[in-house]
TrEMBL record:
Record-annotated Mor transcription activator domain positions: 58-123
Provenance organism: Veronia nyctiphanis
Matches recorded under InterPro entries: Homeodomain-like_sf, Mor_transcription_activator
Name of the protein: Transcriptional regulator
Length: 128
């Protein structure tokens, strides 16, 4: 499946309401780019959020201020992080709509994104 190449740069187009609750909380807490960096590295896993951010492997993935904010909210607990799949699918669907609006046929778009023509039609119907 072809997914959006840089979902961080197009975050203003993401429908936040379709995201898992924890992902929405993380966006509000540490911002979209930091949330995406975190779930890209650790999505689908239980991740320990330390009470003391400087001692954490998460410091390799997040800026210290974001890690400090996470520690204040969730320090000493494990978070089961969602995967980036919902965001990636939304990005892919935007690319599909863009291709269709630019005159590409459903068959061509379906082949490029490795989806069925019916799925392309459903995406068009739901997003257009």
């Amino acid at each position: 499946m072809q997914l959006e190449s840089n979902p961080v740069s197009h975050h203003e187009n993401i429908d936040k309401e379709k995201l898992p609750e924890l992902m929405k909380e993380l966006i509000d807490l540490i911002g979209y780019a930091n949330m995406y960096r975190l779930i890209s590295s650790f999505g689908g896993q239980d991740v320990y959020i330390p009470k003391y951010p400087k001692r954490s492997k998460l410091s390799d993935e997040l800026p210290l201020d974001a890690l400090h904010t996470l520690s204040q909210e969730y320090g000493g607990t494990y978070l089961t992080l969602p995967t980036s799949r919902q965001i990636d699918i939304q990005g892919r669907n935007r690319e599909i709509i863009h291709a269709l609006h630019n005159g590409e046929s459903r068959k061509t778009v379906a082949k490029r994104f490795r989806l069925g023509i019916r799925q392309i039609a459903n995406i068009r119907k739901n997003l257009a």
